[in-house]
TrEMBL record:
Residue ranges of the TM segments: 40-61
Origin organism lineage: Bacteria, Bacillati, Actinomycetota, Actinomycetes, Kitasatosporales
Keyword Membrane among record annotations: yes
Species, as recorded: Streptomyces beihaiensis
Keywords: Membrane, Transmembrane, Transmembrane helix
Protein name, UniProt field: D-alanyl-D-alanine carboxypeptidase
Highest taxon of source: Bacteria
Length: 79
């Protein structure tokens, strides 16, 4: 590696290429089977709630009036 010949104001700048940290990042623990099952159950519950709300909202979102909801007045009968 190229070494400087002129003086440097700080010693750590001159030796920066040799620096190595002895601090290791913390290792993550693997989730247990119960934690994985719990996360999957929560995910399935959220998805089931979204699908259920969509299925319940579909009739209200439809734009065409169905024949069961059409009301006729007695005046239209010609009595």
């Amino acid at each position: 590696m190229f070494r400087r010949r002129e003086p440097v104001p700080f010693a750590f700048v001159a030796e920066a290429d040799k620096f190595r940290s002895n601090v290791a990042p913390p290792e993550r623990e693997r989730p247990s089977a119960g934690q994985i099952a719990g996360r999957a159950l929560v995910g399935l519950t959220v998805v089931a709630g979204l699908v259920g709300s969509l299925l319940l909202a579909m009739p209200a979102l439809s734009s065409d009036p169905s024949p069961a909801h059409v009301q006729q007045s007695e005046a239209a009968d010609g009595r």
